[in-house]
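Incident log, structure service

09:12 report received: a user says their structure output differs between two submissions of the same chain.
09:20 pulled the input from the user's history:
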Amino acid sequence: MRCAPNSRFVILSVVPLYEYELCEGSCAACGGRFTLRRPLRAPELTACPACKRPIRKVITGFNTPSITKPVSVSDAKKAGFTVLKRVNKGEYERQ
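09:34 re-ran on a clean worker, output below:
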């Protein structure tokens, strides 16, 4: 993570995990299937780094955040948010 020059924003460096498998056969070094962390702009990997055999990228599941419970008014207040309740059209009051 680093800050952009002359900016309030933080640039996150994202390096995803990719899963690969051998196109044919198996290997004692890689086990026939392996996972690597590779930059988004890296060229496509076509051979296993260990055994040099041809490989293909495997489509796998991905991680998504899960919400365990609905956000309540008290949770929002604890997090420092101002909670407003609609009174009339265009009118709100603090809770």
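09:41 both user submissions now match this output. Likely a transient worker issue. Closing.
09:42 reviewer note: Residues 14-59+70-94 form one domain. The chain has one domain: 14-59+70-94.
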